[in-house]
Amino acid sequence: MAPRGYAVYPTLVLFSFLIFPPPVLGDASDYEGKTIARILFVPREQPVDPEELHRILPVKERTPLRLDDVRAAIGRLYATGTYSDIKVDAELRDGDLILRFITQNNWFIGRVAVKGQIKGPPNAGQLANASRLELGEVETDDKMGQALNGIQQLLKGNGYYQPHVEPRFTYDPRSNQVRVDFEVESGRRARYASPTLVGDLKMPPVKVVSATGWKGWFGWKPVTQSNTQRGLSKVRKKYQSQDRLMARITLDKLDFDEDTWTARPELNIRPGPKVSIVTVGAKVSRGKLQRFVPVFEEHTVDGDLLVEGQRNLRDYFQSEGYFEAEVEYKSQKEIDDKEEIDYIVNLGKRHKLVKVDIDGNHYFDKQTIRERMYLLPASLQYRRGRYSESYLRRDEDTITNLYQENGFRDVKVTSTVKDIDKVNQGTIQVNIHIEEGPQWIISKLEVEGIQQLDKETILARLSSTVGQPFSEFEVAEDRDNILSEYFSQGFPNATFEWSSKPGAAPNRVDLRFTISEGQRRFVRQVLTSGLVTTQAQLVNRNIRLNPGDPLSQPKMLETQRRLYDLGIFSEVNTAIQNLGGDTQNKYVIYQMDEANKYSIATGAGAQIGRIGGGTSLNAPAGTAGFAPRVSFDVSRLNFRGLGQTLSFRSRISNIEQLGLISYTVPRLRDIQSLTLIFTILYDDTKNIRTFDAKKEEGSVQLSQKLSKANTALYRFTYRHTSVSALVIDSFLIPLYSQPVRIGILGGSFIQDRRDDPTDSHKGIYDTVDFGFASNVFGSQSSFTRILGRNTTYHPIGRKLVLARSVNFGWLAPFTRQPQNPNVVQAADIYSGAALEDIPLAERLFSGGGSSHRGFPENQAGPRDSVTGFPVGGQALLFFNTELRFPLRGTTLGGVLFWDAGNVYSRLQDISFRFSQPHQIQNQTINGATTPEEVFGFNYMVHAAGFGIRYRTPIGPVRLDLAFSPNATHFGGCAGYSGTALLQCGLFNPDGSPLLPRKNDRINLFQFHFSIGQAF
Fold this sequence. Notes:
The protein has 1015 residues and is α+β, with helices and mostly antiparallel strands. Helix 1 runs antiparallel to helix 3 (67-79) and helix 6 packs across helix 7 (225-240).
């Protein structure tokens, strides 16, 4: 083991050396002026690069020895920060002067880890953080003492009063790093004892002890920091529930008793008086008082918090239309253990801001200024407008900054508020007056100090150029850009200064930028630690720095981000070793902590399906349903140490049983944009009322990120599909109801240019999906599938958004089944679809909250003429248009929408007709003729409606009400169940139907509730 060093401040050591020359040199006059034959270092291996060592030393071989040079050499060596002690020895050997530098190195903190028998809390990571040893800093005895004390204090705070902590050091002479492993034996955790209560409690002690929660059903709980803090908080809340807002609850000590192995807390309680905060002159609910007056949140009462509450209440009243509201607070004297704080409110008259006028602007148009203002006239969103004195001052400052950023240094912005209704004096107008003043222009720009970088490249990026408006904001931006460029090129000590003076002409400015580059730093080597499962090659592929590169801070952070993006590290720390040392080449350190290998998630909830529906007893048009659901997911992260993920997902409800196994390979073949995914799927779904679909599927998909907005997906899928629980006669369409194997090669293209995927206001979203199923891939059915969507979002002014979407889908079969005489009638009903080789579960089903709100879920398109249930189609076309607008504040919005389209039997059957086609057909059996109305489904269904959007962090919660004037009619049997389905469509000998026939219709009104916008 290498010896541990002691860090010495270089300047102090150098100072002492200059005053007291090292005794090892003996009589300096014996060596002064003699020629140096050799310069040796002891030990031979030095922490500084040999080339850099030779460069920084003022003493050179074959030159006369000067003691001043020796002193300077020692000073420069100390300045590198890598040495804790330096001695110089001189020796004459055969007339040659040999100069030796005897050095002792500093050691720098590398990985800090905690091992041993630890029962959390705290965990190993928390203990390592408690050491406060910073990556890359010099290791000293003082810091190690502080580290041990921090770890022990954290253990004691969590009930471990007799822990054993021993540091172990592993030295790496190549990098001068020391790894510190703390071996911890936490021992036995103490439990709480009944606390000692000090002070005037103002309540029975038993209630205080009970409020702590430190005693459970089975005795006193173990001591932990979280339990201690939670107990103090509970006691504080107990007093606050009695309006003692000034209560002070502190933990004076926590005495450990080794005999009973318990810790007895001593609580110092100063309850303070009961505080009553009320408003005088206006009624405010207690909930709003607690929100606006921060004493409730801060658990204390002081002047600053009361003043802040005063401002908050005034802004609230002004936002409610009381623009002249004044609020003051007054504290009453404490009487009988009670203190009252009154907020005295003078509301004044209630107003309505109807107009915000801007004048004096010439350089900017009014729309540009209004976009930055907070004041708003009355509207549907803000019934009385948005106004307060603080809002007005904010807007004045915003407009001032806008002009100053564009060279108007002397701009003045003033405002007036006046009543415009002389009778009622309830409506007001705000006039913003702008005195722009002259625009200052840059007449001359001088940039000094650029020597090691390309000056033309830096000048080309400046905003402050000759002929442009002069603005301190632009200068600040130029400063940030220049320094960012220098930091990225290895100049960590670069500085920027600027000055200006009046130019030769009026309103002109001469500008000067002065850059001090400092010494350029380079990467000596990148050091990594903390890899246990992860293979080093995975980390190395994501490191953006190589030895010899400029020490780029942006690349250091980019590497850190890329390592985090792998999703396999819980923490990635980066640092520069010996940051303050005056060396040109630096070690860059990355310390990583691997995340848990397994991630488990469980959940329970419910979903509402098929909202809306028809009126028949069997609801072929859908009915409301409630589906409780549970889920269980488990993932194995960093599989094989290559950042790959093996996961299992499951969903179980009464409408779906799903199991999914996936294997994800990110950054395929070291290509950042490629991700390979293998999946195995089992899905048994009842989301279509006509049948239950069961799917066993295996697929492989390659995802390619083409650009920030564009993504391409390439996949092959092989699945076995079967249907069950048919509510239509399977003999009419035998192919549809049989199990079938599908092998399909496909791909997708996704273009996403939306500003916010959860609630878009502008942008474009396009998707195209193509699939080709053929017997070449082992498929029993051959067809092509094309699905496409084009969605755009257009802002209209500041408040409105026009969103529109077009969806198109097409299934094109390659083969047809032989015509069966028994299904001729069915073939006519389905417009030939029954003769084509597309299984029932592969056909297109749509309709509902995310496609067409005039239908319940998956209820659009062709239907079985016998039972009335949907059978899907081979083409779909939907048009969706929404006008989105705010309703109340920033959280509640509204939508007016229009949906049009349908699912069609075939591509050639797409129709834009409004009315549903139908005809009367006569059925003749045993001489009896029965007329029956037969409906067609190849027409365009329209729906208009209104929706509510409530903004949440995970996206808007939406409720839509749709009205469809041409909702679909269909026919079917009423009252069938079980085996009676086989009798549906049959007739008695007298010609009457065996089961009664009935015409039905999808409800004209449909309700949809979900999370997220419709599109």
